[in-house]
Design brief:
Strand order of the largest sheet: 1-4-3-2-5-7-6
Distance between the termini: 47 Å
CATH topology of one domain: NADH Oxidase
Number of helices: 18
CATH class of one domain: Alpha Beta
CATH superfamily of one domain: NADH Oxidase
Number of strands: 21
Shape: elongated
Length: about 650
């Protein structure tokens, strides 16, 4: 420790949390490292189209700083071009409204117009150095790419216009050395202040934002020699709730959930150690679920923004925790119950052969005593639900289980209706997967025209790395269900991700591909640990089995379907869908905060199960279509 302190005093090493001190030392006068006199580098020319000139008019006085406020909810209305030009000229125009060290003016301004008007269309523009015209940058505004680069679920609170202030540090450092970096930052602050005050004088709302990903935003805007410093949102203030407020509320509630003690969450993006380029965030969470055994709950979430990935990881951890904590409201024989009950065979019908083969799965008998929990039937009435359908292994050691429940069909949210919707959507997704497996159906491969630009780009990216990625359209009458699959000779040889959406196949495909990429991100560089279909009990067992090349080859039938454009779905209301699917629910919500946790159960959908031969092929949805000879010999492909 003494040696480390000595090295710190000599400024040979620095505390990672105090690097700013080293930076400040480097920019002090007199300079430790003198600038080498050289000609200022010229910014390379960029192909620009669509020049829009600024009206020539006198500048008006700026607004008062006392009126300036940060806005976190913008209206979906355009900012007229005249106001936009006035703001730009007030900020950094030809009259040089801000001081600039050496009159070098290193600041650049990109204008991202998300909601255009008659003069200024949606697009990305570059403001000229004198603020008198905008040039179209010929950059497509792909929402998913900007969400990730800005790390913003709501694209900075729904602002119709965003300014990106950047600096070409070579313009100042050639003359002032490291201190030129400090001068450029000061100048950016002057520009931002002018911008905010000018907008305030025109009764427009603003927000400063610094939570973007520097390199991702720089690549997206093709900034070349410039570095992004600040984003400013501009627009008309809305009286409604901030966009994506449910994400913020859900994350805050999940972070305050203390039912399982300390939950350690790690969020990453950017480049993996092996050089994997990513345009998503992945969060991993783990917590001790049993202090005596040291067993942990592990979960993950992948999304385009850090907040949403953390929400997914925390939600999955909470869902799994709640499924492991049985709650018993009634213990009785079915014949002695005074309330209606849900027969387990209507949800998870095991065959007699499966009960003999699978460990500790027993038949339902009217004279046997079982644990029950209160639920709600499809009509809103009270129904008793067997705890074996709701919790993992909740039966005591003296009797067998009626079923092996999983966390599929459990969802958490700050809204009960939203939690139920997510839970039902997951059941629909898993039903489509299990029917494809049991019937050995080769689903249609989605045509490129049905995919987003982001999905097409990422499929080509993986193809370049030797992984064959396909988006499959699974058969479902209730929602769009997408299954993303990837095959490769290298580990892992098979990976899949799935998602469902009531309205858009493109959205389902995007999320399914994100799930697949998240799994790849966490497992690239690993090694197969299971090539035999023995002792299969968990999703991880299924993943490890098909991560081995020869096993993955057995399921190549998945990608033998025709290439098609998925057909549109008739949208059902939540009430209608719940009625048709006869959805029963159990409320598992923790009492410690405002989070709702809902378990959904439907006799009309095939549940997912894990283990060799555990598929519910006796279910009425698939009883006549069992065609897969792999059943009973190998696990299904989904993990």
């Amino acid at each position: 420790m003494t040696l480390l302190n000595t090295l710190r005093e000599l400024t040979i090493v620095a505390d990672a949390g105090e690097l700013y001190l080293s930076f400040h030392e480097l920019t002090k006068n007199p300079m430790l490292y003198q600038a080498t006199p050289r000609r200022c580098a010229q910014q390379p020319s960029v192909s620009l189209q669509g020049v829009i000139a600024s009206p020539d008019e006198e500048l008006a006085p700026l607004g008062s700083s006392r009126s300036r406020r940060s806005c976190r909810s913008f209206a979906n209305a355009p900012v007229d071009a005249l106001s936009l030009f006035r703001i730009l000229r007030d900020s950094y125009g030809r009259d040089h409204q801000v001081p600039s060290a050496g009159a070098l003016y290193p600041i650049g301004i990109e204008v991202i117009v998300l909601v255009g008007d008659g003069t200024l269309q949606r697009g990305v523009y570059r403001c000229s150095d004198d603020g008198t015209y905008l040039r179209s940058r010929n950059i497509d505004i792909e929402r998913t790419a900007f969400e990730h680069a800005l790390d913003s679920d709501d694209l900075v609170f729904g602002a119709p216009v965003m300014f990106v202030l950047s600096a070409d540090f070579s313009k100042t450092t050639w003359k002032y050395g490291n201190r030129g970096y400090r001068y450029a930052l000061l100048e950016a602050g002057h520009v931002a202040q002018n911008l905010l005050l000018s907008a305030t004088s025109m009764k427009l709302a603003t927000i400063e934002y610094g939570g973007f990903l520097d390199d991702a935003l720089s690549r997206l805007l093709k900034l070349e020699t410039c570095e992004p410093l600040l984003v400013v949102g501009l627009g008309h203030e809305s009286s409604g709730d901030p966009p994506c407020e449910d994400v913020s509320q859900t994350l805050a509630s999940l972070r305050s959930t203390a039912v399982f003690g300390q939950l350690r969450v790690s969020t990453r993006t950017g480049l993996a150690e092996d050089g994997l380029a990513s345009d998503f965030f992945i969060s991993t969470a783990n917590t001790v679920r049993d202090a005596e055994s040291g067993r942990t709950i592990q979960s993950s979430g992948v999304a385009r923004t850090s907040r949403l990935s953390e929400v997914k990881a925390r939600s999955e951890a909470l869902e799994r925790y709640l499924c492991e904590k049985p709650r018993v409201d009634v213990r009785a024989c079915p014949r002695d119950l005074d309330l209606p009950f849900l027969p387990p065979d209507t949800i998870m019908p095991y065959s007699a052969e499966q009960r003999d083969r699978l460990q500790r799965i027993s038949a339902f008998r009217m004279n046997d005593e079982y644990d029950w929990i209160y639920g709600q039937d499809p009509d809103g009435g009270v129904v008793l639900v067997p705890c074996d359908l709701v919790f993992y292994g909740c039966s005591d050691g003296e009797r067998d289980h009626l079923a092996n429940a999983s966390s599929s069909g459990v969802a958490v949210h700050t809204s009960r209706s939203a939690a139920l919707r997510i839970a039902v959507l997951e059941l629909i997704e898993r039903d489509a997967i299990m029917r494809a497996w049991i019937g050995k159906q080769s689903p249609p491969i989605a045509h490129d025209s049905a995919l987003s630009a982001r999905s097409r780009r990422r499929i080509n990216y993986w193809k370049h790395l030797g992984r064959r990625v396909y988006i499959l359209s699974l058969v479902s009458e209730w929602a769009h269900v997408a299954l993303a699959v990837a095959f490769c000779p290298d580990y892992p040889s098979f990976v899949c991700g799935a998602a469902a959406d009531f309205e858009s196949f493109e959205e389902a495909a995007d999320r399914a591909l994100l799930e697949l990429e998240g799994i790849l991100y966490l497992n690239l560089g690993g090694a197969s640990r299971s090539d035999r279909a023995t002792r299969m009990a968990s999703p991880m067992d299924h993943f490890q089995f098909y991560s081995e090349g020869s096993n993955a080859a057995m399921i190549e039938w998945l990608i033998e379907g025709p290439v098609e454009v998925p057909t549109a779905k008739r949208r059902e209301s939540s009430a209608s869908l719940r009625d048709k699917l006869r959805v029963a629910t159990v409320d598992l919500s923790p009492s410690s905060n405002r989070i709702f946790a809902i378990r959904a159960l439907s006799p009309e959908l095939v549940p997912v199960t894990f283990g060799v031969g555990a598929e519910l092929y006796s279910h009425k949805r698939v009883a006549r279509v069992r065609a897969n000879s792999m059943i009973g010999r190998y696990p299904h492909f989904f993990s």
